[in-house]
Design a protein that fits this description.
- This is EamA family transporter.
- The chain has about 325 residues and is mainly α.
- It has 14 helices and no strands.
- α1 crosses α4, α4 packs antiparallel against α13 and α8 runs antiparallel to α11.
- The two termini are about 20 Å apart.
C-alpha cells in the first residue's frame, strides 16, 4: 500500500482502539443494553433518511444487523459493564477471527487448511489463557460475555460475505436499523424501566458530559469515520493486506486503558493476548500468494515503439515478450 494508505489503516486502528475508552465512559452513565439501542438508534435515523438501501437480500441485511450490530455489542457492553477490563475487551473481541474461520467451514464449505487449523488452535489457546487469568466464576462470566460478542461479530462477517454488497458502506449504515428495537426490548426486560429512567434523569448534568462525548465518539469516529475509511481501503487493496492492521486495535486499546484507566494486564493475560494475535495473523497470512493484485509484467520498451509494437524494430533488436502472469488476490476476513 502507499504510505498514505498505510497511515489511514493505522489511523483506523487508533480510532477503534480508543473506541473502547469511549464505550467505558458511556457505560458510566447508561445501562449497557439500553446504550446499544441508543447508539444504533442515533445512526439509524440518518441511514433511513439519507442512505440508499443496499442492494442485498433482506435476510443477509438482517443477519448482519443481528450478528454484528446486536449480538456483538450485547455481549461486549454487558461484559464491560460487569467489570471486564476495557483494554482486555479489545483483545478478546479478536476471537471473531477464528470463529469466522470455523463458521465458514461449517456453513460455507470453505476448506479447513492446515494453516487455518493451526491459527484457530493457537488463538483458542490464547483465549483459554486469558479466561484462566480471570481466576473465578465471577470473573469468567464477563469474559464469556465478551467472547459471545466476538461470536456475534463472526456471524456478521458471514452475513456480510453472503450479502456481497456492491456498496459496503451502505450495508454498514443500514445494518444500524436492525439493533435498536430488539435491544430496547431486551433493555426493558433485563434492566427495567426504572434503571433507564434513572439514567435519563441525570443525563443533562455536567457529570454526564463524558458519557455523551463517549457516545458521540463511538457513533461518529468509531463507526462512520472508522468504518468508512476501512471500507475505502478494502475496495482498493486485497483484504489480506488491509485486515492485519486490525491487530493494532488491541495494542491501542490495552495501551490507552493502561494510560487513562490504569489497567495493567497480568503476565498470563499478556501471554494469552500474544497467542491470540499470533493466531489471527497466521490465519491472515498470504504464503504462496501475491501480497497484492498483480497485473501483467512490463515488457521492455523502446523510445521508438510502444511496448506492444515491435514490428518496426530490426529483427536482431526485437526483445522477447514476457509471458502474462495470473492475477492473485489474497483474502482475509474483513474488519467491520
Amino acid at each position: 500500500m502507499p504510505l498514505r494508505h498505510t497511515a489511514l489503516a493505522c489511523l483506523v486502528a487508533v480510532l477503534w482502539g480508543i473506541n473502547f475508552l469511549a464505550i467505558h465512559a458511556s457505560l458510566e452513565q447508561f445501562p449497557p443494553v439500553f446504550l446499544v439501542a441508543l447508539r444504533f438508534a442515533i445512526l439509524a435515523v440518518p441511514a433511513l433518511l439519507l442512505v440508499p438501501r443496499p442492494q442485498v437480500p433482506t435476510r443477509w441485511l438482517i443477519g448482519y444487523g443481528l450478528g454484528f450490530g446486536t449480538l456483538q455489542f450485547f455481549g461486549l457492553y454487558l461484559g464491560m459493564a460487569a467489570g471486564f477490563p476495557t483494554g482486555l475487551a479489545s483483545l478478546v473481541l479478536q476471537a471473531s477471527a477464528p470463529f469466522t474461520v470455523v463458521l465458514g467451514v461449517l456453513f460455507l464449505r470453505e476448506p479447513m487448511t492446515r494453516r487455518r487449523a493451526v491459527s484457530v488452535g493457537v488463538a483458542v489457546l490464547g483465549l483459554a489463557l486469558v479466561g484462566l487469568s480471570r481466576g473465578s466464576a465471577e470473573s469468567w462470566w464477563p469474559f464469556w460475555l465478551v467472547v459471545l460478542g466476538a461470536f456475534g461479530w463472526a456471524i456478521g462477517n458471514l452475513s456480510s460475505r453472503l450479502a456481497a454488497p456492491p456498496k459496503p458502506l451502505h450495508l454498514i449504515m443500514w445494518m444500524t436499523v436492525v439493533p435498536p428495537l430488539p435491544m430496547l426490548a431486551l433493555s426493558l426486560v433485563i434492566e427495567g424501566p426504572e434503571q433507564i429512567r434513572a439514567a435519563w434523569s441525570t443525563a443533562a448534568t455536567a457529570a454526564a458530559v463524558p458519557a455523551w462525548l463517549g457516545l458521540g465518539y463511538t457513533v461518529v469516529l468509531g463507526t462512520v469515520v472508522g468504518s468508512g475509511i476501512w471500507v475505502w481501503l478494502m475496495k482498493r487493496h486485497p483484504a489480506g493486506v488491509v485486515a492485519p492492521f486490525s491487530m493494532l486495535v488491541p495494542v491501542v486499546g490495552i495501551t490507552a486503558a493502561w494510560l487513562v484507566l490504569g489497567e495493567t494486564p497480568s503476565a498470563l493475560e499478556v501471554a494469552g493476548g500474544v497467542l491470540v494475535v499470533v493466531g489471527v495473523l497466521w490465519g491472515n497470512g498470504t504464503r504462496g500468494r501475491w501480497p497484492q493484485t498483480v497485473g501483467r509484467r512490463r515488457r521492455p520498451t523502446s523510445t521508438a515503439t510502444t511496448p506492444d509494437d515491435t514490428s518496426s524494430m530490426p529483427i536482431a533488436r526485437k526483445m522477447p515478450v514476457a509471458p502474462k502472469t495470473d492475477i492473485h488476490i489474497a483474502t482475509s476476513r474483513p474488519a467491520p
